[in-house]
Every structure is written in structure tokens, then in C-alpha cells.
Design goal:
It is a single chain. By secondary structure, this protein is α+β, with helices and mostly antiparallel strands. Helix content is 22%, strand content 18%. It is built from two helices and six strands, in the order ααββββββ. Strands 1-4-5-6 form a four-stranded antiparallel β-sheet, with no helix packed on it. A two-stranded antiparallel ribbon has the order 2-3. A hairpin with a 2-residue loop joins β4 and β5. The radius of gyration is 17 Å and the shape is globular.
């Protein structure tokens, strides 16, 4: 068997977890280990407060609308074919989450709809911090 060399300069950085991080927390809600309020606090409120992120992390007038709509009654099976990771794999492959991300909005603009990213002009904005 021939040894395959990896070109580390071209390997995607990071760990393939972002796409499924929220769903993994929602599985804890399903099993009664966390409440939905706990998930919102841990993923939105606490990071915004801790790092002084301005105008984000809460649903308030004047804040940017960074929102996720989740269906808690719909399974999300994880396969290599339905992951968006550049590395082409997921540590969750073969697992089915108990909920599904239906839509995602960033800065009030929909960027994900059911199973596909929505092609939009870049709405990326730098974060501003109060610290």
C-alpha cells in the first residue's frame, strides 16, 4: 500500500464542529440536561457580555438580528454528503440530531434556508467591542 502524503499548507484549518454545535446543545435540551434558555444564555448572551460585543447577543431594539430558527421536532442526520466542512468529514457522521436548523439570519438577512446557504451579497460586518 502506497503512503499518501498530506500537504499541510493546503489542509483546512479548524475543527469541523460549527455546523452542528447548536444542534448538539439542542440534543441536551431533548434529554432534559439543558433548557432552551440555558442554550441561549451560553451561546448568545454570555459570550456577548463576557467579550463586550456591542449590539449583539440579545433580541433588543437597535441590535443586529443574528437569529436561528430551529425545528425541535425534525431530525437532522449527519452524513458526508450534507456537511459544509471544507475538510469533507464530521465527527458527528452517522449521528442524527433531534432538531433541525430551518433558517439563519445574520444582520437581519437570511443566509441559510432549510438545507442550503442562501447566496447573498456579503453582509459580513466587523464586530465592535466595548472593552
Amino acid at each position: 500500500m502506497e503512503e499518501k502524503l498530506v500537504d499541510y499548507d493546503k489542509a483546512p484549518a479548524g475543527l469541523p464542529l460549527v455546523q452542528h454545535a447548536l444542534l448538539s446543545l439542542m440534543d441536551h435540551v431533548h434529554y432534559g440536561r439543558l433548557s432552551v434558555t440555558d442554550v441561549v444564555e451560553k451561546t448568545a448572551h454570555n459570550p456577548a457580555t463576557r467579550y463586550g460585543v456591542e449590539l449583539r447577543g440579545f433580541i433588543r431594539e437597535g441590535y443586529y438580528a443574528d437569529l436561528v430558527l430551529i425545528n425541535c421536532d425534525s431530525l437532522t442526520p449527519v452524513t458526508y454528503d450534507n456537511t459544509f466542512y471544507h475538510c469533507g468529514w464530521s465527527p458527528f457522521s452517522g449521528h442524527s440530531f433531534f432538531s433541525r436548523v430551518k433558517r439563519t439570519w445574520v444582520n437581519g438577512q437570511m443566509v441559510f434556508d432549510d438545507t442550503q446557504p442562501v447566496l447573498v451579497d456579503s453582509n459580513a460586518m466587523p464586530l465592535s467591542f466595548s472593552r
